[in-house]
Amino acid sequence: MDENQITQVRGHDAALVRAERALPREPVVLDVAPEDVPHLLDYWELVRKRRWLVLTCALVVFTTVAIGTLKEKPIYEGKVLVEIDPEAPSVVNFKEVVNPSTQDMESYEDTQYKIIKSRTLAEKVVRDLELYKNPEFIRDRYLFGLFDGGVPPLPASIEEGPPDSTAPIFRNAVGYFMSSVDVNPIRRSNLVEVTFDSTNPQTAAMVANKLADDYIENNLQVKFDATTKASAWLDNKLRELRAQVEAADDRLAEYARANGIVFISQSQTLVTERLAQLQGQLTGAQSDRMGKQALYDQVRSGHIDTLPGVVGNPLVQSLEGRKTELERSYDDMSVNYKPDYPKMVEIKKQMDAIDKQIDHEKKIAAKTIIDEYNAAIGREKYIQAAVEDAKKSVNDLADKTIQYNIIKRDSDSNHELYAALTERMKEANAAAGLNQSNIHVVDPSVVPTGPVKPRVMLNLTIGLLLGVALGVGLAFFQEYLDKTLKTPDDVEQHLRLPSLGVLPRFALAGAAEKDEDGIETLALTTGSNGHHPVAPAIQTTPQAIEAFRSLRTSVLLSASPVPRLILVTSALPSEGKTTTAINLGATLASLGNKVVVVDCDMRRPAVHRGTAVENNPGFVQCLTGHLDVSGAVLPVPGVENLSVIPCGPIPPNPAEVLSSPLCADLLHRLREKFEYVLVDSPPLLSVADSRILATLVDAVVLVARAHSTPYDVVRRARTLLYGSGARILGVALNDLDVERNGFGYQQYQYGYGYGYGHSPGDHDAA
């Protein structure tokens, strides 16, 4: 078989392998149920992670509050204890005018509090004490009173008298006065604390006492004005009512005389009394007639034997007894004799005579009942006629009484109103002469000995608490806006993929340099033992070594059989996939396995820089048929069993090169020669190269940078891989700063400071 035929067979086998691996596979999604309620420790770790933001907010707010507190001038408080009694101490009963007890208690108290803080009372105090001349009351203030402006010049006319209420200087003084007054009622009592704040202690006490005195004086003046006005109004009203009462009485008397209305009592007349008597008699007659009608109906029906006049008649009862004896004798003789026997004929005659007499008595009783029934009907009709006549008389009288009652109600209302107004007139006259108030001062204000504002410790404490609360709130808000992957839990919760490991933040030990002509030169570093050179991307710190060993263990235990051809890729550029692939290969090689890292990133190759090897020859020459793959394998300095195949010259069409059947054939041959083949590829979301390579490998490892890669982007990369039929082993979370991060990663630092599991031999192998 010649060389061309061999190449065709290999291309055909590679195409079959690629087609088999490109078959859709069932996505392996980690079933992780999110916690319903976060643990309290999670909140603490979040605050601890963003502690600098919290401390900065606390410091800024605390400093601002401290400066404002220390800049504020001392404020003194004048306090007057006033009793506001809702029951007016009045000896009269003029409640509608001066007694507030009929008002709603709560609304009355609220009204009094508003009066104390009213503008009218404030203007009176300002005028009485000439506060419009005091610089404290008339100077301008800025930034909530932290800064005072200059004192405006006083007008020349102010010495002659107080300025007009519309003058700016007077309005400024009244406004400051009203803002300095406060009213604090004491619970379960009628006592009220009236306070006034001022920068001068003497002014605070003086103004507070003057405010209480003017309030009491104003209360007395209001009552006096009310009673005086009420007395004048009542006096005029009484004159009008007196004439109305006299005229109403005259009309009522004249109408009663003209219509003959005579009252037995306040509510009855002679006619209505007679009607009531007749109605009572009619009711009795109707009852008597109904009783006799029952006996009458019994007579008409022929049931005379059961009438009371028959059943209870002694003669009928005696005749019935005699007849019974004769019937008994007749029956006894009929046994021995015939009916024509003289004795039996005699008895029969006696029995017939008794029957005639009983019938006569029954007729008499029936006639009596009929006569009595007819008499009851006649009496009922007579009384009914009398009632109708009485009703007509009552109706006639009612028509006349309507107008009478109208006139009488008018007269009665005038009498009642006149009597009430007369009583109120007496009370108003008595109240007008009183000089008592239901408001008095219990404790006058004294000059305060110390300021009440600012409360330095309280303000500083509140400022500190507000600053901490603001910082914590901003920390939670910033965490809410942060959509990046930060923890292995985020990987499992948001991506539903296993977390293969957490890689700490580290820096490359060395890097490629450029000479004067701009050509890259390779730089090797010295290992931790100081003798063996190590490639720049190989990590030698104990913390990094243990992190990559953990990643190696996760990869080896992630599937059965263990995948040998693994693609290492990421969603975005600069995720650390090249460094991860090289160090993962180093840890696999430390187990004695032959490992090769293939640089398939034909856009920005970096494996040769990370391993300090030449970028020529490379994988591109193998794909173009200019070089056998064994000739492109280069050993990594300082790491036994680890080799790399650099990219080589960048081709103009990387996707077409990787899609060729020769690419799958070369990877298959490397898989047979090495225990593990790690493929470095471009980012998934940038180009299609990684999706092409995903169809050629056994499994894929996704690399994501902590606190940098949004999980939505990684979800998109996961979807693309599943669409290509790839098998995703999991996600390696890279570049985690475990020294600074306080969100539960202390466990990843365990043992590193003590050289846990690390020895010079491990370093040499890595």
What does this structure look like?
The chain is of the alpha/beta class and 766 residues long. The chain has three domains: 3-24 and 496-512 and 520-765, P-loop containing nucleotide triphosphate hydrolases (Rossmann fold, 3-Layer(aba) Sandwich); 69-232, Bacterial polysaccharide co-polymerase-like, CATH 3.30.1890; 270-432. The chain is 54% helix and 11% strand. An eight-stranded mixed β-sheet has the order 7-18-17-12-16-13-15-14, sandwiched between helices. A four-stranded antiparallel β-sheet has the order 4-5-1-6. Helix 12 (314-333) runs antiparallel to helix 13. Residues 1-35, 89-102, 515-522 and 742-766 have low confidence and may be disordered.
What spatial form do the alpha-carbon principal axes imply? flat
Please describe the biggest sheet, giving its number of strands, its sense, and whether it closes into a barrel. Answer: 8 strands, mixed
- Averaged pLDDT, please? 76
Over the alpha carbons, how many angstroms does the gyration radius reach?
A: 61 Å
Q: Say what the CATH topology of the largest domain is.
A: Rossmann fold
Number of helices: 24
Quickly describe the structure.
With 766 residues, the chain is an alpha/beta fold. The longest helix is centred in the middle third of the chain and has 91 residues, at 342-432.
